[in-house]
Amino acid sequence: MHSDKKTVLLGVTGGIAAYKSCEIVRGLQKAGVRVKVVMTENATKFVTPLTFRALTHEEVAVGMFDDAPSDPIHHISLAEEADLFLIAPATVNVIAKIANGICDDLLTTTACACTAPLVVCPAANVHMYESPANQRNMGLLALHGAKIIEADAGYLACGDIGKGRLADVDEIVRQTLLELGLTGDMRSTSVLITAGPTIEPIDPVRYITNFSSGKTGYALAKAAHERGADVTIVSGPVAVEAPEGVHVIPVRTAREMRDAVAEAFPACDIGIFAAAVADLRPKGEADHKLKKGIDDAALQTIELAQNPDILAEMGAHKQEGQVVVGFAAETNDVIANARKKLLAKHADMIIANHVGRGLAFGTEGNEIWMVTPDGEEHVPYMLKPELAHVILDKTIELMG
Ligand code: CTP
């Protein structure tokens, strides 16, 4: 009867955040998912089973030995029906029980019997959340293969401030759909991103580089991965952490970056060139540390050679269907200069920004113009993670 729809078994446990589970049901249903609810006795003190029955049009399972369900071995049939078991909110108590295989009610017994992916969304008082026991139990669940959607920080129902608030409902729905393979407008899209600076050695201890932090490239990688893309970053040396699930190819110089990109580019659908590639490199790296008084001539006059322009090379070789996005950091005539780069580098879009006003390099946010052959769109200042999604929205539009 339900064979064409994925089934999420939603476990609701006894926390004040249980009322948010109703919104989770709605969010999943909107995405075409069938939701069945299993509750702990404590959860029924916060929201009644009737509420979930009305929302899901399904029986709501609570007691291990309730009469209502048609199946006498209810925990097994529930477990088998589920394509995914989502527990939201998950109390510290239920996390502890599931992590340790304790089965003393229908929800925990079903969790133990369920072989479908498990997604756990904890919610608790900050001290309970941060307690060593809970941290260990969440770690155990993760070790067993569960996905933990960590609680948010903020004002908690108990009056404390800190981590413990159920993660954002939309985020829970989004990640659940992603786990089910149902979402992500970039699913089955392969994205190659260059990020960070390159460093160009003068000798074994000195090099030329720039102020790029890699934040924009890494934010784009994270955003594309969240939307279901298969993401590779070819990255110069950066201090930012690689997003989980993203393949990182570390490089140092522009030439190393070009080689790594040239190998990966033919297989990608989207190439985003966010790296601040050094346009020039010292001609020939000295094989020894240049010494004052001995190598003065070489130290005082560093001869430079042109580096490959990676974006221009890839743009010139792009295949039908590939979309190429570049960046332009400009101090003046932002749009006109970006448009020149769009043409010269055969890009489909240039993300232009105005540098030199405390914006761009190393900052948390930016203001940009998205310049395409059809025109330009101004995007007001926003944080780089949000900006990344705006850039990806436009990139997807360009894919047609
Ligand atoms: N880029 C690249 N390889 C280079 C130089 C730049 O791939 N050797 C890419 C950057 O990743 C960025 C775009 O080209 O996407 C624009 O780089 P930018 O340094 O702003 O432009 P340049 O071409 O160097 O031009 P100019 O120095 O005149 O601004």
How would you summarize the topology of this molecule?
Layout (H helix, E strand, L loop, with lengths): L6 E6 L7 H11 L3 E6 L9 H8 L17 H8 L2 E7 L1 H8 L6 H8 L4 E5 L3 H5 L1 H12 L3 E2 L3 E4 L5 E5 L3 H11 L10 E6 L4 E4 L2 E3 L6 H12 L3 E6 L11 E4 L3 H11 L5 E4 L6 E3 L13 H5 L3 E3 L3 H7 L6 E8 L3 H11 L4 E6 L10 E8 L2 E9 H16 L1
Helix pairs in contact: 1-2, 1-8, 3-5, 4-7, 9-14
Bound molecules: cytidine-5'-triphosphate.
Please provide a written account of the structure.
Helix content is 33%, strand content 25%. The protein contains 14 helices and 19 strands. The strands form five sheets. Strands 12-11-8-13-16-17-18-19 form an eight-stranded mixed β-sheet, sandwiched between helices. A five-stranded parallel β-sheet has the order 2-1-3-4-5, sandwiched between helices. A two-stranded antiparallel ribbon has the order 6-7. A hairpin with a 5-residue loop joins strand 6 (152-155) and strand 7 (161-165). Helix 1 (20-30) packs across helix 8 and helix 4 (92-99) crosses helix 7 (132-143). The radius of gyration is 26 Å and the shape is elongated. The two termini are 36 Å apart. The chain binds cytidine-5'-triphosphate. Cytidine-5'-triphosphate (CTP) is lined by residues 194, 254, 273, 275, 277, 279, 307, 309-311, 326-329, 341.
